[in-house]
Amino acid sequence: AIGFREFQPYLQAVAAGDASTETLENLKAAGIENMKIATRQYAKRQIAWIRNKTLPECKTTLKKRQQAQSFVLDATDLAQWNTDVRDRGIQLAKSFICGSELPSAKSLSARAAALLADVKDPGSMLAWKKHHCRVCSTDEVQVWLNGEDEYRQHMRSRRHRRNELRERKSRQAEQAADSARV
After folding, report:
1. Is residue 169 scored above 90 in pLDDT?
2. Separation CA 6–CA 20 (nearest Å)
3. What is the pLDDT, as a whole number, of residue 127?
């Protein structure tokens, strides 16, 4: 939930009732700025998810009888919302329902062309090989990775390297204890 965490200092100051008007205004302005930052970061994560997960899956269906197609509508200019998003979305939906030919997804806007330009084709997510990380798994949590990209990324991650080092030190300590007993 974006908003509460960003405004928590402001809300606490209002509830305490001992902050000056200037302090409250500064906390409110900081909350607004932090909320804008959090919203942009969330939007970036959504775009990354769409680009890395959803679009490649749609691309794998292009060779099948039932094709999935994704359209990107540019909502960056709120003054143009009705024409760029609402009207264009309704037009696309009507064309789809009527069985009319749909336009190229990349032709809708420059943003759509940029987002759809370099969609990788990793194969269907349903066909991805599942990898189990024995090093990072515990009795409570099992770490499973989907596909080769995710597995390679995990193997290079700080968490995995830290767990590998911990396991290596534990083995060395056990070997030292065993050799001391002999």
Report:
1. yes
2. 19
3. 59
